[in-house]
């Protein structure tokens, strides 16, 4: 399953360079699939999880935009946002371990995306 997601990720990330907005939508689709798979979300859990996650992620993006050059300020805001959403995530996911896994899965996805972009830049040179 992970190989399929990785292949899907690579295909969609190619589309990103062809059409920026469509690429963002496609990357978001792969992100949803990746995190859903990492957390083994049931359809019922996914239906509850993703609206909460979308609100959470919106706040994270806003914090990032407010502190683009201050990593410490952003990290402080991120910790506060995660603390704020932890009870909501826990209600859906059922345990602190799964909440932590959600945050870890998000970080792993971002690392995969950055690595893919780095490899593409290297291949273009």
UniProtKB/TrEMBL annotation:
Domain of life: Bacteria
Signal peptide range: 1-20
Keywords attached to this entry: Signal
Protein name as it appears in the record: Sensor of ECF-type sigma factor
Organism: Ilyomonas limi
Lineage of source species: Bacteria, Pseudomonadati, Bacteroidota, Chitinophagia, Chitinophagales
């Amino acid at each position: 399953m992970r190989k399929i997601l990785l292949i899907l990720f690579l295909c969609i990330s190619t589309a990103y360079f062809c059409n920026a907005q469509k690429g963002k939508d496609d990357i978001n689709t792969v992100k949803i699939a990746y995190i859903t798979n990492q957390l083994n979300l049931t359809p019922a859990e996914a239906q509850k999880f993703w609206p909460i996650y979308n609100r959470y992620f919106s706040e994270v993006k806003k914090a990032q935009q407010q502190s683009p050059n201050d990593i410490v300020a952003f990290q402080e805001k991120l910790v506060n946002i995660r603390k704020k959403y932890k009870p909501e995530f826990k209600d859906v996911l059922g345990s602190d371990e799964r909440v932590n896994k959600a945050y870890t899965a998000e970080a792993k996805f971002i690392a995969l995306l950055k690595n893919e972009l780095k490899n593409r830049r290297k291949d273009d040179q």
